[in-house]
Amino acid sequence: MNTNTLLYLKDFKRKRSRILCLILLFSASFSLCDLSYAATQIPSDPNALSKTRAVLNYLATLPTRATNKIVSGQELWGGKWAREPNVIYAVTGQQVGFIEADYGSSGENPPIGESAELANNVMIDYWNNGGLVGAASHSINPKTNGNYRDLNFSDTDMVALITPGNAINTRWIAELNRLAALLQSLQAKGVVVVWRPFHEMNAGWFWWGGKNPERYKAVWRHMHNYFTNTKGLHNLLWVWAPVRQRGETSNYTTYYPGAEYVDIVGIDIYADTFTSASDGVVNGYNQLLGLNKVFAVTEFGPGSGGAPPTKNSYDYMGFLNQVKSALPRTAYWLSWSGTWGPGEQLNATALMNDAWVVNRDEINLSGTLPPPDTQSPSAPAGLSALAASSSQISLTWAASTDNVGVAGYRIFRGGTQIGTTAGTS
Q1: What residues are labeled active site?
Q2: Which of 24, 200, 324, 416 might form a disulfide with 243, Cβ 3.0–4.6 angstroms?
Q3: How would you class 411 by CB atoms within 10 Å of its CB: exposed for 0-12, middle for 13-18, buried for 19 or more?
Q4: How much of the chain, in percent, has pLDDT values that exceed 70?
């Protein structure tokens, strides 16, 4: 390796930020870019709307508070768009802070997708009344046109999914266009959507689950690029959410698509208790925190996640107390529908009125937009490299400084970005 170095600065402007790159040339060149943002988090969409950034920043700041630090949430499933929040309100006198609708699958019986427009009306109303909203989609199997539990879908089909010129891709692009149209109608109304596709990919019960990790990542990135660049959707916060894996050493990040494609990470948890080492949740939580993204409990339900639990069989304060003790940086949770939700279980009133919990009338996005950043960050000086092996180089550098704050660094090799980090190595 040529150890002679050439250092120089590049100053780029990008919205309310500037990027300074310090470049070190070897046989291949590496560049280190310091991203100075007033925002707490960098959106995966560089052209994210100001409201989108405000929601992301709001969620990112919640865990730093002493109280009002976790947003309550409820899934709307099976076309019962207004029912779930109303059940909770009738019991507790509180509206949850966050709702998520599912745009469904044309393979459902009856089809959820037929009422997706009605779901949008509910989300628009909820947003206009101060709540946060999200969407997911248990989409069709684009090979068979069956529902999301039709497992006739291989790794080879995952490649075909994003390769033009075959029937699987044609069906999939039609599905993406359907979903994009629904999301575009929300963007036109000024609604920010917490978007959660391809969840529980580390299990094998959905057609996209349990596949080759690299092929899964390619499918996620394809959707992100298609929605962001082709469809012009800039009102989305992208949520990546594996399901709970038992064991102290389970790897939760195997399917992670990359920092440039994700805004929020979370775990779907179906269990009465989940804080022991053998449950694997705390292990996953710690791994996902290492990704430097907002963390959420993206689905929760008591029991095993199979048959719905019996009504009034679970004390929901048990869930919250476990979050407080073991997952304290959780920004929001989403309860599943029916008897998995707090409205049909015990102690819902105590849950919704707990000092930690943020409900709809307590959400305030003002002050979460980044102020103008008029000062460039200092260059990330002292960039050095050490050959760790014949195929690996370790980079280290001195931290940059900025009047607003340094959110992280992007690392380039030969002009191509190869990674991001919040640290200095």
Answers
A1: 200, 299
A2: 200
A3: middle
A4: 81
Task: Compare 379 and 43 and report the one with higher pLDDT.
Answer: 43
254: nearest Cα among 240, 239, 236, 268: 240
Per-residue HEC secondary structure of the chain comes to CCCCCCCCEEEEEECCEEEEEEEEECCCEEEEEEEECCCCCCCCCCCCCHHHHHHHHHHHHHHHCCCCCEECEEEECCCCCCHHHHHHHHHHCCCECEEEEECCCCCCCCCHHHHHHHHHHHHHHHHHCCCEEEEECCCCCCCCCCCCCCCCCCHHHHHHHCCCCCHHHHHHHHHHHHHHHHHHHHHHCCCCEEEECCCCCCCCCCCCCCCCHHHHHHHHHHHHHHHHHHCCCCCEEEEECCECCCCCCCCCCCCCCCHHHCCEEEEEEECCCCCCHHHCHHHHHHHHHCCCCEEEEEEEECCCCCCCCCCCCCEHHHHHHHHHHHCCCEEEEEECCHHHCHHHCECHHHHHCCCCEEEHHHCCCCCCCCCCCCCCCCCCCCCEEEEEECCEEEEECCCCCCCCCEEEEEEEECCEEEEEECCCC
First to last CA, the chain: 19
Q: What is the mean pLDDT of residues 11-20?
A: 35
Q: Which residue has the higher pLDDT, 176 or 414?
A: 176
List Cβ neighbours of 315 (8 Å cut-off, separation of 6 or more). 345, 346, 347
Tokens of 81: 């768009």
Specify the pLDDT at position 383.
83
Could you tell me the pLDDT band of residue 124, with boundaries at 50, 70 and 90? Answer: very high
pLDDT-based confidence at residue 374 (cuts at 50, 70, 90): low
Structure token digits, residue 202 = 């580390």
Q: Are 39 and 47 in contact (CB under 8 A)?
A: no
Per-residue pLDDT reduced to its tens digit, 394-416:
888 888 776 555 656 777 776 66
- The residues facing 59 across adjacent strands are none
Name the band, by pLDDT with cuts 50, 70 and 90, for residue 381. Answer: confident
* Full-model pTM: 0.80
Other CB atoms within a 10 A radius of the CB of residue 101 amount to 27
